[in-house]
Amino acid sequence: MHSTTTLLSLLSAAAAANGASLPRDSVCGAAAEIQCPIVFDGRVSADAQPTDFDSASTSIFNPDYVKGNNLKWSDILQFPDAGTTHFDNETHKPFEVTLSDESIFQSQQGFRRAGLQFNGDTNNGSPGSQGVKTIHFSVKIDPQRGLNLSHEYILVWHEAADYSANQFNFETGTIIGQEGLPKDTYKVLNRNNQQIWSTPILEDQWQNFAITLDFNQNTLQVYYSEADEPLESVTDVVSNNNAGEGQYQIGLLKKPTGTDDVVNSGYQESGIDEGLIYGSLFVEDSANGCVSL
Ligand SMILES: *[C@@H]1O[C@H](CO)[C@@H](O)[C@H](O)[C@H]1NC(C)=O
Ligand SMILES: *[C@@H]1O[C@H](CO)[C@@H](O)[C@H](O)[C@H]1NC(C)=O
Predict the structure, then answer these.
(1) Transmembrane stretches, by residue range (predicted)?
(2) Domain spanning 37-289 has what CATH number?
(3) What percent of the chain has pLDDT over 70?
(4) Domain assignments of the chain as residue spans, ordered by start
(5) 113: CA distance to ligand 2 center in Å?
(6) What is this structure's pTM?
């Protein structure tokens, strides 16, 4: 796959001579290692078939939620050749969550949405809503299925059990009511929908994110890197109201324009074929400050 054997031998020899260990990110294609106990693993197996995601016996996600009423996950998920990302290795593959005109969940005519939930992430009593947890995800745009950044898209979030709020939102596009923020960035918003960090969307690079949620201290912290670089913290530990339990959701929720009632009304253009590629998805236990970088 990579013609780096000679370089690697040289680096290994140099590292051995120094008594230093070979830096992981100098090894082309090597996955970063997860350091902490995995609570939910959303990394898709390289041999997974689309229809695996339609059945509870074969899917690592909830096969029934949150998607267009007449769609199956095998209609929604694509598996583009997007390379290996940060915590994935050759036993995993990235997946793309897509939106079409059919992406209408229940009677929510305002939204177009397709959101994955981890198996075992129950709305109440989930281990993902207790203690200190870090959700990891990497994203890459698909030029064939571009997003319309005149709209607001939520891409990863944690929704309270009573559906009254999201403890955090990872978003892109034009945030309704905050049109002054640049649209072509990824943004982390706190529970009050205030942006706490953002970074430009890259066209052809994996971008890696982690968000640590402390459900005891009511804080969050954001980590970021590009390509196969180690994650670095990009915010302080900031206070955030993480109460209310609920569930993670990974996928696209596209809001309409031109309405105050985003759930039920507003404008969505027809004929859409949009998507975002995800990989390196998991939740780990960050008790005692453990965060995989
Ligand atoms: C790839 O990741 C899996 C965990 O999902 C791990 O069991 C396996 O050892 C890894 N393979 C390599 C070659 O690192
Ligand atoms: C993008 O969204 C805006 C607002 O809904 C709409 O006016 C425009 O036609 C859309 N652009 C494309 C290319 O679909």
Answers:
(1) none
(2) 2.60.120.1160
(3) 90
(4) 37-289
(5) 17
(6) 0.90
